[in-house]
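Hey all, sorry for the wall of text incoming. These are the two entities for the joint prediction.
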Amino acid sequence: MFDARPSDAEYVRHRVSQFRAQVARRLDGSLTEDEFRPLRLMNGVYLQLHAYMLRIAIPYGTLSPDQMRMLAYLAEHYDKGYGHWTTRTNIQFNWPKLVEIPDMLEHLASVNLHSIQTSGNTIRNTTTDAFAGAAQDEITDPRPYAELIRKWSTDHAEFQFLPRKFKIAISGGARDRALVSAHDIGLRIVERDGLRGFEVWVGGGLGRTPMLGKVIRDFLPEEDLLPYLEAIIAAYNLTGRRDNKYKARIKITVAERGLDVFKADVEEEFRFRRADFRGIDQEALAGFRERFAPPAFRNAPVDGFEAERKANPAFRSWTDTNLHPHRIDGYASVIVTFKAPGATPGDASAEQMRLLADLAERYGHADIRISHDQNVVLPHVHKSDLPALYLALREAGLATANAGLTSDIIACPGMDYCTLATARSIPIAQEIAEHFRAEGLEEEIGKLNIRISGCINACGHHHLGHIGILGLDRAGVENYQITLGGDGYDIPAIGQRAGAGFPAEEVVPAIDRLLRAYLELREDALEPFIDAYRRLGPAPFKAALYPETVDA
Amino acid sequence: MSKAFTPTAAKPGVITANDLREGHNVWMCEDGWTADPAQATLFEDEAIAELALLKAIGQSDLVVGPYMVEARRGPNGPEPTHFREAFRQTGPSNYFHGIQATKQSEAANV
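and here's what came out:
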C-alpha cells in the first residue's frame, strides 16, 4: 500500500549511516563477506573485474545542475575523473574504494541522490523518455508518474526480495522512446474518451531469453496505477520461480503460465489491493505535477539560429542530427552524444559534467537528462541559444554530430570492467565508430542503431539493435555474434542471429561488408537500414556477412 | 569462468582475489598478498593448493572473493592462460588504469 514516509532526505541519510556501520562491521570482522554482500548490493556496491563499482540511481534520468556537479566532484575525488552513463539512465563509478563509499553516499545524499535499489531483486530505477516534458508528440510529462512509482517502490516492504530484479519504464510520447516493450512492466500514457490512463505491458526483457512484453491492460485509468502495479508485482512475487535464477524474471512467469492465467491472478490481487489506496497516492501525484511544472519558456526570435545554420555547415550538420522537436515554438531538445570517435560510449569526465551543468543553467532552464542510449539531453534550449551552446560543446569535444547514426553505439562496459562479461564491448564500439568516420560513410548510411553487449545478460541491448553484437568466449578467445533486425522503437523486434560468430579483428570488416551491401540494396537514400532489412529479409544481408558461404 | 579449478603439475594455478578495503586485484604470494601478479605463488600440487585456498578464504579481513585460476610458468613469474585473467592483470583497454598504471608508476619511482 502507498505509504507517506518520512522525507526522502531523512530516509536517504538514515540509509547512509546504516551502510557506514555495515562497512565498519565488515572491516572489523563482525560480518562475513556472505553476510555483507547483500547489504552492499542493496546500496549499489558491486565487486567488478578490477575494483568495486558504485551504481547511483538517476531517477527517470533527470538531474539538476547541482546534482551533476556532485557527480563531477565524486569522479574527481573518489574515482579516476570520470563516470559511465548506463543503459538504464544511471551512472556507475568504476574505481571507488569500499572504505570511501559511505562518504560518497553522504555527499550524494546532500543533493538527494542515492544508490538504493540499484541492485538486488528489487524494483529498480523507473526509466522514461529523455525528452519527457519537452517532446512535441507527448500526451503529458510521464515524470510525475515515474516519481510516484519511485516513492511507492523505494523501500516497499513487500517487494525487497522478489524472485528477480524488476524494471519499469514509462513513456508519454506517441512514439515510444523508453523501450516499454523490453521492460518487466512498461507503461504507455494513452487517452480514451477524454480520460487519461495507461496501456500496461508486462513480461518484456532482454538477457539470455529475450522477449517483448505483452499488453495486459489496454486502458488502465490513471488513478489505478499504483494498485495495479502492486497487483502485478504481488502476483509475480507469489508465482515467479525461485528455483532457477535464469527462469525467475516475470517474462518467464508470464510465458510459462500464460498471459490469461497470470492476468487472472493480477485482477484478483487488484480487486482487494485497490481498496487499500484511499487517495493519498493521487494527492502525492498532484504535488509531483507541480514539481515537474514546465519552466518559464521565453518567446524570442530565432533569426540568429537560422542565419548560423546557413553560414556554418558544421553547425547545420549538428542541428540536423542532434536536435529533437520541442512542443514549444522556438525551442529544441539537444542531444549531447558521448560517442565521439575513439571515446568510450557513455563515459563522461568531471570537466564535461561541470560544463553541462553550467550550460544547462545558462541555456537549458537548468534541466539535464540522461538517456538510455548513454547520451545526455538538454531538453529545453531556445533555438537562439543554440549557436553559443554548440560552440561551448565543441570546445569540450561534445559536439559530435552523430545522434542516431552509426557511431552513436550503445555498449555495455564489457570485459574491460564487468565481472559477468564474456568478452569486451568497448574496443569493438570504438573500432566501428572510428572506421565509419574514417571511411566518411556515416552520413550516407544515415539512421542506424548498433548495440553491443559483452555477455548474454544484454546490458548493451544488442537484441534491440538494427545490428546487434554479442561478445562471447569461444574456447578462450573473444568471439562476436551478429544479430540483425532488432528494433527498440517504432516496430519493436528482437534481432535474429545472422550466423557463426566472428573473431574480434573480423567484426569491423564484417559490419563494413554489411553496410556497403545495404547502401547497394536500399531503394533510395531515405530508406534506413532497418527498413531495407524488413523489406528484403535477412538473406542479402547474411550473404554480405558470409560471402564465402555463398561462393561455396 | 569456473571458480572450481584445481591445479596440477601439468596445469598449475594461482590464487587471486580483491583487496577488501580498496578493491584492487591481488594474488597470493609467499608472504601474503601482492598487487603484482608476477610475484604470485604458482601452485602445482592439488593438496597444497587446496590448503592455501582455505587459508585465503580464512583471510576475509584482507581479501574478498578468493579463487584458484589456471596460470602457466613464465620467465618473469606466473602468466595468465585466459584473456579474462590477462585483463585483470593489466587493466581496462580503454584507459591506462589499473595494474598497468600502478606498475608503470612503480617502475618510474625505482
